[in-house]
Design brief:
Blueprint: H1 15-34, E1 38-39, E2 45-47, H2 48-52, H3 57-61, E3 65-67, E4 73-76, H4 81-89, E5 99-108, E6 120-129, H5 134-151, E7 157-162, H6 163-172, H7 177-188, H8 192-197, H9 202-213, H10 219-229, H11 234-252, E8 259-260, E9 274-280, E10 285-292, H12 296-299, E11 307-313, H13 314-323, E12 335-340, H14 346-358, E13 362-365, H15 372-381, E14 386-390, H16 392-396, E15 399-404, E16 409-414, H17 415-423
Parallel strand pairs: 1-5, 7-8, 12-13, 12-14
Antiparallel strand pairs: 2-4, 3-4, 5-6, 6-11, 7-9, 9-10, 10-11, 14-15, 15-16
Helix pairs in contact: 1-5, 1-13, 5-11, 6-11, 10-11
Bound molecules: histidyl-adenosine monophosphate (HAM).
The site of histidyl-adenosine monophosphate (HAM) has 25 residues, from strand 6, strand 10, strand 11 and helix 13.
């Protein structure tokens, strides 16, 4: 027996799980169409410099980085946003805005493996490029709500925040960019003590501490409290007002926001505005997350271009679907096994199989050369709906035997009526 196993943190997706992945990809693709997003496929391997530019310390340290044979330092993409920003500064730079781009595929991070956390995982990613308006932020949140609903998930919640609140305070208090990023990284991990320890000004520490402690059950109340709290900070005030506008738009559109978290931060460094996450409270895992990043495209050498986006973790959505025992809405197609009694009818039987497939019926042709009884037993065990048994005598009069596994009965059926009878 082979002792080879997948690399740690990577896994094989077997048919049941792959079916859920395909279902999620179909739902994501339908949503992309409904919201006007066009799909693009970008490379899995990208220049290290591109992926590391603004992703943040945590992601940088967890990239699968290597030298290719041409001595270039490259890495497996840990997300899609950098690749899309690259595309927007190069091939798509003259495209009229807004640009709405959708991608789906595997991404790689050297995370510590655990339930719902892998080193190879899949994301469905959406980027809306070219608008700084709160309606664009709202679209991304509404798209998220629609994505969750379409897949049948129920127990999810959306958490909203704004990096401009924390950054506005830190900037006004003279904290440099590098320290700000380090503070936000720790805030993301909810390691508030470590975050505050990096700030030398006591006034600033106190302000942040108060923000962390703000509590309310209603997102609108939280925003009001935040406004009062940051009133002496010009940029932070503008951030909270922007957050209030986005909250109102999405709520008016029927999308419930569970919480506004005043001390919310996300691991990625490129965010400049609204940030959010969709999560399952019972499982305490994020199914997706995103936000506004107005400076990234400029960092990559493009024109200043505002942008906002989101990515959903398909592995985690699949986990939630399994945990919530959601039935997938899938198109039912009948499955049929086609077999012969004698070898002489094989070529005729193959033609019949082809005819059935053309009529939209799934056919598993008997390719093992088993005796009829064994082939029927196998077909029954594998839960096909019918067996089509092609015999010499029936074929002479243009018929075959159709065995119905559910009804446990068999009849002779004319070839001209076979597909209709199976589909009925
Ligand atoms: P992110 O929050 O790093 O955002 O990842 C998005 C989602 O990917 C997470 O919410 C989670 O469901 C899934 N995910 C992250 N790490 C793992 C892992 N190790 N195993 C399984 N699933 C994981 C981004 O990637 C941003 N690029 C989103 C974005 C797009 N922001 C703007 N545009």
């Amino acid at each position: 027996m082979s002792t080879f196993q997948p690399v740690r943190g990577m896994r094989d997706l077997l048919p049941d799980e792959t079916e859920i992945f395909r279902y999620l990809i179909t739902q994501a693709t339908k949503n992309a169409q409904l919201y006007g997003f066009k799909e693009v496929i970008t490379p899995v391997v990208e220049p290290y410099e591109l992926l590391s530019a603004k992703s943040g310390e945590e992601i940088r340290q967890r990239m699968f980085t290597f030298k290719d044979l041409g001595d270039r330092t490259v890495a497996l993409r840990p997300e899609f946003t950098a690749s899309i920003a690259r595309l927007v500064t190069t091939t798509l730079k003259n495209e009229p805005k807004p640009l709405r781009l959708f991608s789906v595929g595997s991404v790689y991070r050297y995370d510590e493996p655990q339930k719902g956390r892998y080193r190879e995982f899949w994301q469905a990613n959406f980027e809306l490029i070219g608008s700084a308006k709160p309606e664009a932020d709202a679209e991304i949140i509404l798209l998220t709500n629609s994505m969750m609903k379409k897949t049948g998930l129920t127990n999810y919640a959306i958490k909203l925040g704004h990096v401009g609140t924390l950054k506005g305070i830190l900037t006004q208090e003279g904290v440099d960019d590098k320290t700000q990023n380090a503070v936000l990284q720790r805030m993301d991990k909810k390691d508030y003590n470590a975050a505050l320890a990096l700030v030398s000004s006591e006034k600033c520490r106190n302000k942040l501490q108060e923000l962390i402690e703000l509590k309310s059950n209603n997102p609108f109340d939280t925003v009001e409290q935040m406004k009062a709290h940051v009133k002496d900070y010009e940029k932070a005030t503008a951030a909270v007002e922007n957050l209030a506008t986005i909250l109102k738009i999405v709520t008016d559109c029927g999308c419930e926001i569970k919480t506004v978290d005043p001390a919310f931060a996300r691991g990625l460094e490129y965010y400049t505005g609204m940030i959010f996450e969709v999560y399952i409270p019972q499982l305490d895992i994020a199914l997706g997350g995103g936000g506004r990043y107005d400076k990234l495209i400029e960092v990559f050498g493009g024109e200043p271009t505002p942008a906002v986006g989101v990515a959903y973790g398909l592995d985690r959505m699949a986990l939630a679907i399994q945990t919530q025992k959601i039935t997938l809405h899938k198109e039912e197609i009948k499955r049929v096994a086609v077999l012969t009694i004698k070898d002489e009818q094989k070529s005729e039987a193959l033609k019949i199989a082809q005819m059935l497939r053309e009529a939209g019926i799934a056919v598993e042709f008997e390719v093992m050369g088993r005796k009829t009884a064994k082939a029927l037993e196998f077909a029954d065990k594998h839960q096909v709906d019918y067996a089509v048994i092609v015999g010499e005598r029936e074929l002479k009069v243009g018929k075959v035997v159709l065995k119905d596994f559910k009804q446990r009965q068999q009849t002779e059926v004319a070839l001209t009526e076979l597909a209709t009878k199976i589909k009925a």
